[in-house]
Amino acid sequence: MGVVDAAELRSAGPMVNLSEAMARVPGLVVNLRNNYAQDLQISSRGFGARASFGVRGMRLYTDGIPAAGPDGQGQVSHFDLAGAERVEVLRGPFSALYGNGSGGVISLLSAAPVERAYSVSVDAGSAGLAQVRLGIDAPLDGGFSVRASLSGFEIDGFRPHSAAQRTLGNVRLGYEGEADRVVVVLNALDQPAQDPLGLTRAQFEADPDQTTPQATQFDTRKEASQAQGGVQWRRRFSDLGALRESQLTAYYGQRSVTQWQAIPVATQVNPVNPAISERQPGGVIDFDRDYQGVDARLVWRWALAGDRGAQLVAGATFDHSQEDRRGYENFTGSGADQVLGVTGKLRRDETNRVVAQSAYAQGEIEIDPRWVATLGVRSGRVEFRSDDHYIVGGNLDDSGSQSYSFTNPVAALQWRASEALNLYVSAGRGYESPTFNELAYRPDGSAGFNTELKGQSSTQVELGAKWRAAALGLSLDAAIFDARTQDEIGVATNRGGRATFTNVDDTKRQGAEIDLRWRIADGWRAQLAATWLSATYENGFFVCRAVPCVTPDVPVPAGNRIAGTVDRSAYAEVAWTPGRAEFGLEVRGQGRQAVNDTNSDFAAGYGLVGLRALWRLDLGPGQLELLGRVDNLADRRVAGSVIVNEANQRFFEPAAGRNFLASARWSQRF
Fold first, then answer.
1. How far is CA 388 from the centre of its chain?
2. Quick one: pLDDT at residue 526?
3. How far apart are CA 667 and CA 117, in angstroms?
4. In which region does residue 300 sit, left (phi positive, over 0), alpha (psi from -120 to 50) or beta (all else)?
5. Per the omega criterion (within 30 degrees of 0), is the bond before 548 cis?
6. What separation in angstroms does the CA of 100 have from each of 77, 95, 97, 251, 466?
7. Cα 181 vs. chain centroid, distance in angstroms?
8. Selection from 202, 1, 28 nearest residue 565 by Cα
9. Residue 179: HSE in the Cβ half-sphere, 13 Å Cα cutoff
10. Alpha helices, DSSP H only, in 42-159?
11. What's the confidence (pLDDT) of residue 571?
């Protein structure tokens, strides 16, 4: 498991995006798109790299509350990094305690207040970055506590038409009693953002700071808002024998999104052949979603002979989501009176529901003081239903339902070779059902759900070692892994602005990871996190050449790189901490990234250098913390991420050139 603590989050940037700090976790790729109208590009050991919408292949949590929907698609824009105690990363499906996800888990855990204090933070940086954050921590009598924060963020963006704003509010209410621990988390997000779109290869090479003309022509943008609340209640037992703990987590939320896209008018309303465009859903996406769920579990512990122990965790989950989804034309009028980038006529209207239910159990036993075995299983079912309310002319009824079942076993064996060295082997099965977006339409253009689309399953094995040499100031985590996926989900067709999906057969992901940390001397430390990954298609298949496409006609040969994956990545830092100051040199880089299934082009690999300096000063009744950063010191112009399988070949999302950040945080006890 990888852990990024509060200090590392703080020193990595303005604490707006997970991409700032997560490079130090091997196996994980979190690319900043520099486009706040799109979610971060997140993948773990190559899983999630091919995602067309949101975050796929990872389970996402904040204080135990899911940030991914029942269909596995999620987002992390509401993560309160400034209030986090740590972010934990579990790579691979090696725990039955979490939902279906092949790549693993990202879990943010908020910090409980330890003293009464208020804080004011101000950030200023390149491209018009500005942020103000207010916070208050208050431990209260009787075991109660409250922590609240409110932040306002805005940025002009280094490309035209890439400005964004974000208002984020978080409240954490806590209670810690003799037997009970209760945490209530409330948060609200409002984030309007312009969308500069990606660039073609020619545009990127000519000027990576430009914006494609369609972005301004159609005023591409996204407005997102979200409000949710959750509670986690843990109760410890001392008089019920082996039953030691119960845990109940429940949540409810609402999310609304409106997104204006750059789909041409002729694609939505084809004047030459209207039949081609009758089933086109428009150039504006609009939905309102309600979601809720519950996770209940019990924990048993036993003391065994020979100073050994055993533990069993068993529970069940229920998650439900319902959305009203609409599509509109992104224009009004015609001819000289035509206006682009506005909400026009209705072209899509449906109600979508997803229900996911699962039961799980995981046990751990110390076979002897040196050997620990873990066995677990999770079994569940995901059900989809869509009711189409827009049945007009050639736009036929796309209502439908589909369900998927899975059973995922996990097993692990750990050998405590010495006080300094642990070796382990883990095996598990991962599963991902299709998302609603992938099920919505059939590849052959007929009406109804894509009922032939299967869920993808993977069999994964990991061998690893953890070595701690306290006398040398060294710690090393290393792992090698092998993952074989059946029925991987990929793009089938692109026609009239509508994408459909199919199973592209088997894939293989193999790799190695290391995380080396060294306390060089008093006040000096270093870290190296590196990943090697081979992610390929084991069988050939066909994809579409260009839009429109009814029948895939371009071969993808076996052995091609899986689109969106990175074959190697690394993070290194050296930090010096004299007293209450800190100075750091960071280097982060990655190899080439395939932009599509055919591997017709790649985003070039790169290495970027950053510098940081942090000071903590006691001034009167409070403390002042100052942070300065320079990123991309050499001002290299690279593609920070790619839009995988983008139908118009606008694959490349440029990274910012040399950029600066200055932050100040004042905190004072009361």
1. 30
2. 97
3. 7
4. beta
5. yes
6. 21, 10, 10, 18, 27
7. 28
8. 28
9. 9
10. none
11. 97
How far, in Å, are 496, 501, 646 from residue 493 at the CA level? 10, 7, 12
The whole-angstrom separation of Cα 631 and Cα 634 is 9
Give residue 545's pLDDT: 66
Is the peptide bond between 409 and the residue preceding it cis, with omega within 30 degrees of 0?
A: no
H or E stretch including 206? helix 201-206
pLDDT attached to residue 53: 66
What is the SS3 assignment for 515-539?
Answer: EEEEEEECCEEEEEEEEEEEEEECC
**Could you give the CA distance from residue 551 to residue 547 in angstroms, rounded to a whole number?**
11
Residue with tokens 């312009």: 194
Report the C-alpha gap between 42 and 73 in whole angstroms: 12
Rounded to an integer, what distance in angstroms lies between the CA atom of residue 640 and that of residue 649? Answer: 16
Q: What is the DSSP string of 464-501?
A: EEEEEEGGGTEEEEEEEEEEEEES-EEEEEEETTEEEE
Q: Are 642 and 606 in contact (CB under 8 A)?
A: no
Among residues 356, 546, 496, which one has the least CA distance to residue 435? 356
pLDDT mean values, one per 10 residues, the chain (670 residues): 91 93 93 88 88 78 85 85 91 82 86 92 97 96 94 96 96 94 95 95 96 95 95 93 95 95 89 78 94 96 90 96 95 92 95 95 93 95 94 86 93 94 94 87 80 91 95 94 92 67 90 96 95 94 69 86 93 95 96 92 95 94 96 95 87 95 96
pTM (2 decimals)?
0.91
Query: Which amino acid belongs to residue 157?
Result: G
- Candidates 396, 451, 523, 564; CA nearest to 56 is 564
Rg of the chain, C-alpha, whole Å: 25
What's the pLDDT score for residue 26? 94
**Alpha-carbon distances, residue 207 vs 16, 165, 201, 471, 553 (angstroms):** 27, 25, 10, 52, 32
Distances (CA, A) of 129 to 41, 121, 124: 21, 14, 5
